Structures are given as C-alpha cells and as structure tokens.
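Reopening this one. Same input as before:
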Amino acid sequence: MKTTIEPSAFELRFSPSSQLITTVRRFVLSFYTQVLGDHEISSRLAVATHELLENAVAHGRRDEATLAVTVILGEEAFTVEVAIRNESDPDDIREAVRRVESLRGADDVFIHYQDLMVEAAGRTQGSGLGLARIAAESGMELQVKAEGEVIEIRARASYPLPSRAS
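Same output, byte for byte:
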C-alpha cells in the first residue's frame, strides 16, 4: 500500500524590497531546514529562493510579488518547487525568457554559468547571473511563463532524501 504524503507549502504575497529579501530568506531557510532536516540542501534552496526574490525586486513594476514554495516528500526523494510572480516591463520579461531558454538549451548548465560570469565581468550595471546561479548551484530546472505584463519564474528540482541518524 502506497502512502500519500501531504506537501509542505506556503504562499507569501509581499511588497518586494531589498530590506525584506533578508527577512524572507531567513524564513525560507528555517522552513526548508524544518521540513527537510538537512542544512546544506536547505542553504542551497534558500540561495535559489533569494535569487528569485532579487529578480522580483530588480525587475518588478509594482510593489507586489507572490512567492510560493512547495516541498513534496516522497519515500526516497523530495521535490521542491519555488515560484515568484510579479508584474514587470515587457523588455525585462523578454530578457528573462531569453535567459531561461538559454539555460534550458545549455549542454552543461554549470559551464554555461561560468561563461556568463566571464560576460558579466564586463558589465557596468547588474550581473545578469541570478537565474543561471539557481540552475548551476542548486540543480533546479527553470521555467518561465508570461501573461501580458505578469511574469512567473519557477525553479524545480528533486533531491534524494537526506539520511537521518536513528
């Protein structure tokens, strides 16, 4: 008999600001650690969530964004999905779509990330590395959906369950 495990999840609607990012990051780190019991994986997931929050602050048009986090524990693995949704300028939406498609088309996401770091060294404004960092450092797959001037970026990955001491 297969047991169904209810997901652990939350949705947070907030006014994105640089000051709130740190507060929300601490909350999600605590959430991940409590649910998963693994500080290393929780820290990587907190960084990924932080990058999505930074993206909403940098490219958001209005003072409202929605962050949704879902963790589904299975018998041998768990799946995490993090989504950020906010209004953005059409040019920023096109750029996010281009960056996500570039990541999804990369043969090796980490090498692609390193190439982007070299490219970013010549920039004078913003690094443009946040989405690539999520994929490279957390192993999460990104998806982007745009409806008019609303963009939603989702990061999703499955990880083996951490071994727990008896």
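So the earlier flakiness isn't reproducible anymore. For the record, The mean pLDDT is 87.
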